[in-house]
From TrEMBL:
Pathway as given in its UniProt record: Carbohydrate metabolism; tricarboxylic acid cycle; isocitrate from oxaloacetate: step 1/2
Region (Disordered): 252-285
UniProt KW Hydrolase keyword: no
Listed Pfam families: Citrate_synt
EC number(s) per entry: 2.3.3.16
A single GO molecular function term of this UniProt record: citryl-CoA lyase activity
Family affiliation: Belongs to the citrate synthase family.
Native organism: Methylobacterium brachiatum
CDD domains from the UniProt entry: CCL_ACL-C
Enzyme class: transferase
Presence of the UniProt keyword Transferase in the record: yes
Name of protein: citrate synthase (unknown stereospecificity)
Alphabetically ordered keywords of this record: Lyase, Transferase
Source taxonomy: Bacteria, Pseudomonadati, Pseudomonadota, Alphaproteobacteria, Hyphomicrobiales
Length: 285
């Protein structure tokens, strides 16, 4: 038994968790000080995301730009591993929450992390500019450092399916418009376009910015830290994951793997052989 004063124990318990996100008491729910009943019907879901992770209320224009980025990345078809996993999970008997959790768990460095990595590249280039380097020099040095640390694939540029990712130009156009309106300063749009131009010079061919590079521009312009870039992508892609899991629920199907069973996989092991001391078709004693 503890010999501490009960009041001290209670104070210690209250201090166990500390949060500036929500103040919830009987009959009262406040987010960063705002009563929830005043937010309902007054702010958009992207604005609410901003408030929850940043503690401040964005302007409607900032919320609209964040919303555009979130809308752009909701889905990329059932060939995307996270989407395929959500559908396969449903056919294995998982409910929607299990299917969504299984799919979200693969959104890591390779599939899902490119936006965060691209934001880190942009931030490094911006830091070099703050140290007095010109934009072009900062881009070249930033790219060299990124390649030395991560390899030749530059996150946020190039695409396996699209010669030009149709989402990226639209997002950059929205950034340009927001820049004219004074919503963002356009610094990271300049950095992103500069990286794209540098890669074209280095490779001798165009390697256009993709969805990850374009949303990285928006998230960086809006002041989000790079790790939040991945979190925001996961929020966005969760919409597609949910939609596909629900559609598969309606379609039915049982234990569907990644490809139809009449399409064989490739076996690369040893040729058929017998275990020593036995003959094919005979039982082992």
């Amino acid at each position: 038994m503890s010999d501490k004063d009960p009041a001290v124990i209670l104070d210690s318990a209250k201090a166990w968790w500390s949060t500036a996100i929500i103040d919830m008491k009987p009959g009262s729910i406040r987010f960063a000080g705002f009563p929830v009943e005043q937010l309902i019907g007054a702010v958009s879901f992207p604005q609410m995301i901003w408030l929850m992770v940043r503690g401040t209320m964005p302007t409607p224009q900032e919320g609209a730009l964040l919303e555009a980025a979130l809308v752009s990345a909701v889905d990329h078809g059932p060939q995307a591993p996270s989407i395929a996993i959500s559908r396969m999970s449903v056919t294995c008997g998982l409910p929607l929450n299990g299917a969504m959790a299984s799919a979200i768990n693969v959104l890591d460095d390779v599939h899902g992390g490119a936006g965060e990595q691209c934001m880190e590249l942009y931030a490094d280039i911006a830091r070099r500019m703050d140290e007095g380097h010109a934009l072009d020099a900062a881009i070249e040095a930033g790219l060299d450092a990124f390649i030395a640390a991560r390899g030749k694939i530059i996150s946020g540029f190039g695409h396996r399916f699209h010669p030009v990712d149709p989402r990226a130009p639209r997002l950059l156009a929205l950034v340009d418009e927001a820049r004219k309106q004074g919503v963002v300063n356009g610094r990271f749009a300049d950095i992103g376009r500069g990286v794209e131009a540098s890669l074209a010079d280095r490779k001798g061919r165009g390697i256009p910015m993709n969805i990850d590079g374009a949303t990285a521009v928006i998230y960086a312009e809006l002041g989000f830290a790079p790790p939040l870039g991945r979190g925001l992508f996961i929020l966005s892609r969760s919409v597609g994951i949910l939609a596909h899991a629900w559609e598969q629920t309606q379609q039915g199907g049982r234990i569907k793997g990644p490809m139809p069973r009449d399409i064989p996989y490739t076996y690369t092991g040893p040729a058929p052989r017998d275990y020593p001391g036995t003959a094919s078709g005979e039982a082992t004693p």
